[in-house]
Amino acid sequence: MKQLLLAEFIAPMDADVIRDGAILIDNGIIVDVGNGNELREKYPQAVADDLGAAVIVPGLVNAHTHLELSCLSPGDRPDSFCSWILSLQQRMLSISHDPLKIAQLGVDEGVRQCLRYGVTTVGDISQQYHITRPRLAKSQLNVVSYGEAVGLAQRRNRFDELLDGAVQTDLAGAHLRIGVSPHAPYTVDARGYRQALQLAKARKLPLATHLAETSEEAEFLQHQSGPFRRLWQRMGWWQDGVELVKRPPIAAARTLGLLDYPTVLAHVNYCSDDDLVILAHGQASVVYCPRTHRYFGHPPHRWRQMLENKINVVVGTDSCASSPNLNLLDDLRLVHALDPQFSVQRLWQMITLRSAQALQWSGQTGSLTAGKFADLVIFKVQTDDPLRELLENDQEPARVMVAGQWVDNQK
Ligand SMILES: [Zn+2]
Q1: pLDDT tens across 247-281, in order?
Q2: Å from CA of 321 to ligand 1 middle
Q3: Full-prediction pTM beyond 0.90?
Q4: Total Cβ atoms within 10 A of residue 397
Q5: Cα-to-centroid distance, 125 and ligand 1 (Å)
């Protein structure tokens, strides 16, 4: 059955907003997008649904989150990133002593929040992928599930095994893609990064990592000292002989080859002018997580300079352990509040088209374009500038559709 959705505004994201527009959907796929009257005439048999004073935007794309942590909450701002890592363990124990149970509850809550807030595609980092993937495969979300591996010092011995599990593709399908994520430069050594990259290249898998998240990361990479070294010692897992990269994080990523691949780099909160040039010459995308960034009190993020340098920088949430929820639009609202003059259309692309490009999934989602999945979000609007209006209020979606099916949203 062909379905024709009409609305006062359609915001395709790869083109200007269409006034009195329509979208034709057939079998879960967008067939046509254009003027409402023209599409009514062109497809007289389609079942029309007029949404009235509303804007239809593409399903939102959250390029960086950890759904399995969705039962956690950020709590008070920690004095340091390392104390936040230590507190994570305590906060998890307060939910359950069974890490599998936490992941199970977390991923279900995460999926529920994504759909409620209009997020239909996620880049999900998962350590408990054997728990999360079967549940994600049954969910309505499009997911790149990056299996996460940690391997440094005494934690090196299980790295190969973790990497192996991370790339198991038996549950992969049209809406679940398998990727790999060496966690971060302070938890994975240089050899581990090279292994992960080699595996990703050989099997053409999406690759993601955390990079330049804190100022302490550079000290650890160059000298193996500072708060991260103390954290490793405190955990009792330090061991001498860890290979030194001897470069700050972004230069190290280039040396390791991570920037010669469409790697998704989460955060990049610390980025010098030289780093901007390095990133501009590479293929990696950056995910700026605004509310998480604010929670940790980092200096202003250089997302505008990144865009000026043609670096694909997009907006994500990170997890509920550092952000109040998975409302991706709230992250974009924060960016808009920080720079109200910046182009609203370009901002929206950072949670749609550009983030789909970061996840290497823009052929199927991220814009309202013929041939892509019918993933879309309806918001009620009152003004003639719907994309700006939605950044300046705190409205939630009225309805969400994934692959042509309306989501039964229980708030
Ligand atoms: Zn993260």
Answers
A1: 999 999 999 999 999 999 999 999 999 999 999 99
A2: 10
A3: yes
A4: 23
A5: 7
5 alpha carbon – ligand 1 mean position (Å): 36
Contact 330, 397 (CB under 8 A): no
Ligand 1 midpoint to CA 318 (Å): 5
Q: Chain centroid to CA 39: how far?
A: 34
SS3 341: coil
Q: Phi, psi (5° rounding) for residue 194?
A: -65, -40
Is 60-358 assigned to CATH 3.20.20.140?
yes
Written as one letter, the residue type at 78 is: P
Domain with CATH 3.20.20.140 in the chain: 60-358
Return the pLDDT at 411.
Answer: 52
Of 43, 45, 38, 44, the C-alpha closest to 18 is: 38
pLDDT in the model for residue 92: 87
Say if domain 3-58+368-406 classifies as CATH 2.30.40.10: yes
A 10 A CB-CB count for 346 gives 10
Q: Mean pLDDT in the chain? A: 95
Cα-to-centroid distance, 69 and ligand 1 (Å): 10
CATH 2.30.40.10 residue ranges in the chain?
A: 3-58+368-406
64 CA to centre of ligand 1 in angstroms: 6
Of 67, 70, 71, the C-alpha closest to 133 is 67
pLDDT at 370: 98
Instruction: Report the separation in Å between the CA atom of 310 and the middle of ligand 1, taken as the mean of its atom positions.
Output: 23
* Each residue's pLDDT tens digit, 5-61: 999 999 999 999 999 999 999 999 999 999 999 999 999 999 999 999 999 999 999
Ligand 1 centroid distance, CA of 287 (Å): 10
pLDDT digits (tens, 9 = 90+) for 137-168: 999 999 999 999 999 888 888 999 999 999 99
Distance (Å) from CA 112 to ligand 1 centroid: 19
Q: Tell me: pLDDT of 244 over 80.
A: no
| Beta strand pairing call for 376-380 and 312-315 | unpaired
Distance, CA 220 to ligand 1 centroid (Å)? 19
